[in-house]
Structures are given as C-alpha cells and as structure tokens.
Amino acid sequence: MTLFWISTVVLTLAAIALIAVPFLKRKANNDEALRDELNKAFYKDRLSELEVEAAEGLVENQQDLIADLKQSLLDDIPTQQKQQKTKTSIAGVLVPSVLLVVLISYGMYYKFGASDKVLHWQEVSSNLPALSKKLMSGSGEVLSDDELEDLTLALRTRLHYQPKDSTGWLLLGRIALANRDAGTAIDAMARAYKLEPKNEDVQLGYAQALMLSQDEAEQNEARLLLSRLIKNDYVDIRVFSLLAFDAFEQQDYAGAAKYWGIMQQMIGPEDSRYEMLARSIESAKKKMSPSESAVAGKSVAVTLTLSDQVNTSPDSVLIVSIHSADGSPMPIAAARYPLGSFPRTVVLDDGNSMMQGRNLSSLDTLMVRARLDSDGNVATRDADWYGESEVVELGAPVTVNIEKQYQ
Length: 407
Fold this sequence. Notes:
The chain is of the alpha+beta class. About 60% of the residues lie in helices and about 10% in strands. The chain has helices at about 1-25, 30-55, 60-75, 80-110, 115-125, 130-135, 145-160, 165-180, 180-195, 200-210, 215-230, 235-250, 255-265, 275-285, 290-295, and strands at about 300-305, 315-325, 335-340, 345-350, 365-375, 385-390, 390-395, 400, 405. Strands 2, 3, 5, 6, 7 and 9 form a 6-stranded antiparallel sheet that branches. The chain has a 3-stranded mixed sheet with strand order 4-1-8, covered by helices on one side.
C-alpha cells in the first residue's frame, strides 16, 4: 500500500512539473529580455558609429552624445515594479494551477478509484492462508458464499504472480466445481494437470471437471483418467462415485450398481451414506433386465495392509485371489497388480473370474488371499509374503493383512 501512495505522489509531481516548467522558462524568453538584448546591440552599434564620425570630424560633442545614448538605454530598462509584477502574475497562475492538479488528482481517485475495493482486495490476499486452511481442513466447516468469493479473488491474485503453483490451480478448480462453473473448473484443473500430470489428486480433480463438460471428447478423457486411477489402485471413494454417476447417465445400470456396491463395501454399513447407496443400487436394478439384475453390484472390495516386518522388492507384484469358503487352492477369480503402496483397496468382479461357467457373483461366501510375488512367476513361492482373510459373505468388506512368509 505504501508503494501505491508513493507512486501517486510521483505521478502528481510529474503533472505539476508539466505545468510549472513552461512558466519558469518564460523568464528567459519574455519580451523584456529580448528588448534588453536589442537595446544593448543598438548601443554598441551606435558607439561604433560615433567613433567613426568623430574621427572624420563630423561630430564635435562626442561625449554629450554618448551620455544621451546611455540615458536612452537606461530609460528603456523595465522598472523593478514591472519585474515584480511579472513575477507576481506568474506566481498567481502557477500556485492555483498546482493546487488544482493536486485536488483534481486525488479527488478523482476518491470518487472513481474504488479505494475501498482495493483495500478489500489487499485484505483478502493477505488472508489467503487462513481461508485455504479452512477450506482444506476437512472439519466439516463450510465457507460462506462471501468467503468463497474472497478465496477465489485471493487465489486468482496469487496465481497471476505464481502461475506454476499447481496446488493453487487445484484449489481454484475445486471452488469452481462447488459453484458448478464448468469453464473455470476445467481451465484451472487443466493447468494443474499440466504442471503435475502424475499427481493423483490432480488427476481426480481434472476428471471431475471434465465430467461437467458437454463435449464428448472431454468426457471420454475423464473416463480414461478414472480408469487409470483404478488401475493404479487409487483409494478414493470419489473415483467410484464418478464412475457410477457416469455409468447411470450412459444407461449402463449394471455398471452403476456395481460401482455403488463397491462404495458400500469401502465405507461399511455403519456409514450414514450406506443406505443412500442402497437406494441408488435399487433404483438402478429397477431399470435393468432380470439377467443383469441378478449379478448387479456383486463384486469384492479388498483392503490390503502390510505388516512392518515385511521386506518388499521394487520388482514384486501383488496377486489377489478369491477362493470358495472351503479354502480350495484353485481361485474362482484373481487379479495381478503393480506393487504400489499400502494400505490400498482393490476391487474384483466377474471380469476377474478364472473358471469357465463359475463366476465370482455365483458365490455366497468366500475368502481372499493376497501374495507379494518377488520373481514374477506365480508357480514359485519361495520367500514370498502372503496373507488371507476370514470367510465372508459376498458383498461384505474384506481386509487382508500381508504378514506371513513362505518357507
């Protein structure tokens, strides 16, 4: 703020200089000064003529003529009163002009400069950390509409000076998503994605924004991002929520029921959203054919944890298999994943079935085994770490802790 007022003073002084300089230079170019110079030149010329005339004997009283010439020159010099009057007239114009410039400059700024908005903008910019913390705290505290507007203004200001701040673009995109502002959301998320294309939070945010687009190509790009997140085992219920919503919009009711079922398994029946998801699944089933409805939503979400004593190799792969409740070694369904990080959640369904004519959805009860394969050969188990679950009903959440090692 101090810099701003210093700038206004500099600009005002520059405007004053534009007015004052012509008045100050006028003294060197006024009529009196020009007349003095002319009189001096005339006096010198006349003295030279008198000397020539005296030498030729044409003038007898040369000194008297010189005296008269000097008196004439003195009579033509402006009086002190005239000079003072000129100075006074200059001051009389210059001083009011300077005051007028100052009054007009600051008066116009007070009237049209929106100083109150500038002050508010600066206060909001300084309050950005507090507003961001409140939005990201996850405490359930909701920002008011005014606070969201302030946060948007502060973010846009920061991003103007720091355009490579991916977190800022992500936050701006989330605010736009909350306001259903598709254009701003897509633009902000696209900038964040360009800066950090491997950041899973950014990928999810960008997919959310693209889902709001009316462009089929952008919607397809969103589906591609979401499918990558599932392959990378990105554990976030919003991924499945977006997939379920998109499937329902595309009239893929079996797919929608499947994703909502996965969400139920992830949150468990104690969560208040469980019943809402059950109603969504029931709504999707009503729109399906009998054959689709029979298997809709039947999948297994497995949460995997890793004990502290487990030593993993970067080349290890994760193998998750679903078996009948009797513990048969032949899996009904299985899937292979990159090592990734733990804890994590993977989902298996009929697409992972291993036995022809027997799908995962045909099981009433099951158990899950997970193994970290160190050499990439599923037939060998030496030194591999593994774990298995209790027997659970199909559709119930499953947890497997990898803690044992084959000897």
